[in-house]
Every structure is written in structure tokens, then in C-alpha cells.
Design goal:
It holds the Pfam family MqsA_antitoxin. This protein has 160 residues and is of the alpha+beta class. The protein is built from six helices and four strands.
């Protein structure tokens, strides 16, 4: 059996060689399997080091999953925004408060949208009637009313 010293924990002959394993890559609730991986695993600390070819394939699969995730999220952002009958400018104003071209960058897959924004978009996809609530909250009437009450209370306390 092939063994070597573990570079992570230092255990002498702790690393044992393996062949033909499958590993799962996880990214934002998406997964991808990479099969037939070879490398070394430490029996003491469970550190794993892939052989060069396996490391390259694992890295390529990871990069591809990241790109696939960005493109999937980009397509979803665009589909949902259109379903809600919003322009990119309106979507920024109502939903994210980001820069004027933020949605364009999300929809082209240049950058991933913030997770809370993506979750909000998915909720609005399932419950589009909530857009009326979003618009109402953006108008701020409820906050203005609360501020008015607070000002009246303050004036009542300080009035002679």
C-alpha cells in the first residue's frame, strides 16, 4: 500500500493513496459530481490531496459549476423581472437600491446578485401579487405616518 507523510498534520505514513472515488462539488444549492478521482487521504486528519490530473478535472468542474450557476441565476433574474413587468431601472429602484446598471450586470451573469435579492425575486415569482406591497412600502407612507405620530408625541411631551 502506498503511503506518505501528511503535509497538513505531519502524521508519518498517514496519507494513503486512493483511486476511482467520486466527489461532490456544492455551490449555492447546486451540485456536480466528479468521478474517477485519485489522490491521497490522511487517516489521521482526513486531509485529501488530489493527484495532478484529478485536481485539474476537479478545478475545471468547479469553475464550470460556478459559471453555470451565474448563467442560471442571470436567466432567472431576467425572466422574473419581465414577468413582474419591471424595467431594469424600476427593479433597481424598487428591489435592490443598487447602482443604475446593477440588474443589467446580474442579467448578463457578470456578477451574482446578492442572495437576499435573489431570494426576494424568487418569492415575487411565486407570489407576484406582493409587488403591490413592495410598491407601497417603497412609497414610505407607513414610515411617514409613524414619524408623524412620533413627532406629535414628542410635541405633546414638550408642550407647556
Amino acid at each position: 500500500m502506498k503511503t506518505q507523510q501528511c503535509f497538513s498534520c505531519g502524521t508519518q505514513d498517514g496519507m494513503q493513496h486512493f483511486d476511482g472515488r467520486s466527489f461532490t462539488i456544492d455551490f449555492r444549492q447546486l451540485t456536480r459530481q466528479v468521478h474517477d478521482i485519485s489522490g491521497w487521504e490522511c487517516q489521521a486528519c482526513s486531509e485529501i490531496e488530489f493527484d495532478d490530473g484529478s485536481a485539474e478535472r476537479y478545478s475545471e468542474a468547479s469553475d464550470q459549476l460556478l459559471e453555470d450557476s451565474r448563467q442560471l441565476m442571470a436567466a432567472e433574474m431576467k425572466r422574473i423581472r419581465r414577468k413582474l413587468h419591471l424595467t431594469q431601472k424600476e427593479a433597481v429602484k424598487l428591489l435592490s437600491g443598487g447602482g443604475h446598471n446593477a440588474f443589467s450586470r446580474y442579467e448578463r451573469g457578470e456578477i451574482a446578485p446578492p442572495q437576499p435579492l435573489f431570494m426576494l425575486m424568487r418569492l415575487l415569482d411565486r407570489h407576484p401579487h406582493l409587488m403591490a406591497e413592495v410598491q407601497s412600502l417603497n412609497e414610505g407612507l407607513d414610515l411617514r405616518q409613524r414619524l408623524e405620530i412620533k413627532d406629535q408625541e414628542r410635541e405633546g411631551v414638550t408642550a407647556p
